Amino acid sequence: MKKLHYLLFSASLLMGTAQAQLRVEIAGVGSNQIPVAVAAFADESVAPEQVSAIIRADLERSGVFKVIDARQPISEKASIDYGAWKSSGADALVIGSVERMADGRFAVRYKLLDTVKQSELSSMSDAVQSKYTRLQAHRIADDVYEKLIGVRGVFATRVAYVNENRAARDYRLEVADADGAGVNVAVRSNEPIISPSWAPDGTKVAYVSFEQKKPVVYVQDLITGQRRVVANQKGNNSAPSWSPDGTKLAVALSKDGPTQVYVVGADGSGLRRVTNTFGIETEPQWAPDGQTLYFTSDRSGGPQIYKMSAAGGNATRVTFTGSYNISPRISPDGKTLAWISQRDGNFSLYAMDLASGQELRLADGATEPSFSPNGKYIMYATKGGGRTSLAVVSVDGRVKQRLTTQAGNIREPSWGPFMK
C-alpha cells in the first residue's frame, strides 16, 4: 500500500520542475509615482529570459513607479543624452546588456542613471547560470527600488502557500517567486496542509500536516528535502511561528486541555508553556524584538489579539474595536499590526499603527495575512469567482494585486525573508 504522504524536493533551493505559473493582476497605483525609463538590454535575446521585461514588470507591479518603455536597446556603455531623457518625462533610466560567456554563464550588467542630476546612481555586474537569469533581473529591480525609494525591494524574495484540490484530495505546499513565477512543490499530500511559516534564513518552512489524521507541526528543509517533526503532542499541534533568530518556534497545542501557546526549539526540544488560562490561546506570532509574542485569545469572551513576553507573565490586550479579531501579524520593524477583523458580517484586513492605535481598513474578504520582508506590502488569501486566490495590498491601501491560477485554490500565504 502506498504511503499517503510523499515529498518532492530539489537540492538547489527548489529550482526543479516548475508547476503552472501564477498570474498577477494589478489594480490601483501609488501616489506620486516616480517616472523611470527601462531600456531593452543590449543582446539580451541570448539569455533564456528577457531581463528588461522582468525588471519592467517588477517596477510596474510595485505601484510606485510610472514605467516608460525606452523602445530601444541601450548598453550600459552607451553615451547618454540626459537632457533628451529628462524631456521625455523620465527621472531615471535603466540600461544594460547581457553577454553569453564561454563557460555557459550569462554576464548581466546594468546601470541606473539619474536624468535630473545627470549622474550614475548605481550599477551591477554579475555572471549567473542560465537558470538564475530571472533571479538576477529581480535583483536589479530590487536595486532600482532601493536607490529610488530608499527601502529594500522584495522582487527577489519568494512566497510559500498551499494549493489545494479537495475533490482530488491533492494538497501541495508550493514555493514561488514573489511575482508568481517559478512555482515548485515542496511538500505534497492527500491530507490537508496548513499554516506555512518561513524560517528567517529562507531555507526552511514550518507547516502543519494532517497526514497522521491529526494536526502535527513539521519543518521542511527546502535545500535537502528532509523534514522533521517539531510538535506531535497529544491533541492538536498547530500555528507554528519562527523566532527572529531561527532557534525556536511558537506553537499552539491542546496537549493539556484548551489550546495554549508554547515555545519549542527548532529541533523539537525544550517544549515550554507560555500562556496559562482556561480559554483558547492560539495563532502566536513573534515580534521582531524576539522577546514578545502576539496571539489570539478568547479570554475576554470573544477572539481578540493580545501580546505578552515570550517568557510568560501577564498579557496586554491590543485590539478593542469589533468583537472578532484574529490572525495577528507584525511588520518587520515592529511598528504595525495586521490582522483580520469581522465587522458588519465581513472579514476584512486591517492594519494598526501600534504607537498611535490608528487603524486602516485595507481589504475586504480577506484571511491569512503575511507581511513582505520590507514591511511595505501584505499578502492575504481572498475568495472570488468560486475560488480562493492570493492578493497583495500596500500598507497604505493604494496598490493592489491579485495572484491567480487556473486550477485549485491557493491560500495560506507566507512571504519569505530577504535572501542573502
Automatic annotation (TrEMBL):
Residues 22-121 form the TolB N-terminal domain. Coiled coil: none annotated. Residues 1-20 form the signal peptide. It holds the Pfam family TolB_N. GO terms for cellular component: periplasmic space. Gene3D superfamilies: TolB, C-terminal domain, TolB, N-terminal domain. InterPro entries: 6-blade_b-propeller_TolB-like, Tol-Pal_TolB, TolB_N, WD40. The keyword Cell cycle applies. Belongs to the TolB family. The Tol-Pal system is composed of five core proteins: the inner membrane proteins TolA, TolQ and TolR, the periplasmic protein TolB and the outer membrane protein Pal. They form a network linking the inner and outer membranes and the peptidoglycan layer. Part of the Tol-Pal system, which plays a role in outer membrane invagination during cell division and is important for maintaining outer membrane integrity. This is Tol-Pal system protein TolB. It comes from Massilia horti.
